Amino acid sequence: MGDFFTQHWRPILEVFLMGGLLLLLWRYLRSSNSSQVPAQITVLVLSLLIAAHLLGMELIRSVAFFAGVVLVVVFQPEVRRAFVSLGSTRFFSTSRENLQLVEAIEESTSQLSAKRFGALFAFERGMDLDQFVETGVEIDSKFAPELVFTIFNPKTSLHDGGIILRQGRIAAAGCVFPVSQRELSDRSIGLRHRAAMGITEQTDAISVVVSEETGQISLCADGEIHQALSPALFRERLAHLLKDRRTRDSESREREALAERSASERIEA
Fold first, then answer.
1. Is the pTM value of this prediction over 0.70?
2. Among candidates 231, 237, 197, 199, which has minimal Cα distance to 215?
3. Measuring CA to CA, how many Å separate 94 from each of 47, 49, 98, 214, 245?
């Protein structure tokens, strides 16, 4: 028995390592944001391949290679959108157009909130939302509060779906969004809010939702919902999220540098 373990310790160790990794991965993915799963699995597979190659663990290397092939097949749509998004760094043409859109959205949501009209918006960013555009009625119209108010009027046939905005224009209305399946402690979050969360879980879009029960305006990004925002905070967060990634990163670095300088000045004083 001792000779057996001495001769075959490496395969036995690999089996136990693979079992432990798969168990940890399964537990982690159950609570993970679904939009990030393909990227997370890709990082894990690449890490396993590199580690197995360096340590000479053939079993783990074979399993990791097979998992990589399965990853490409299972997550083909997500992989395609990820490659498309690599070359997409601008969401709206200029800061002025961005500001104009935010002001129009704020006007629209205020009108809808006052009338207690439920509404749902999704803003396309890096990843295209064609698969959701196809579920609704294509419009390709300039954004106008009057048009939005008509679309979400309960007497119209499109009011139950969502509006998709692309480059500041209404691409489609009456669209069906994926519904988030996450367990939430807040039982007041209904189907429309779950749809707003769902599309931001599966894509990098951001969404805005108006509650027909309370008139509250909420903003969703990365699967997280921020409810009952004041008009000023809503405008600030929406404008920030609609900026391209490079601009947001640059502003974040500037804020961090300013905070560091302020901290240094306080210490010196």
1. no
2. 231
3. 39, 43, 6, 34, 13
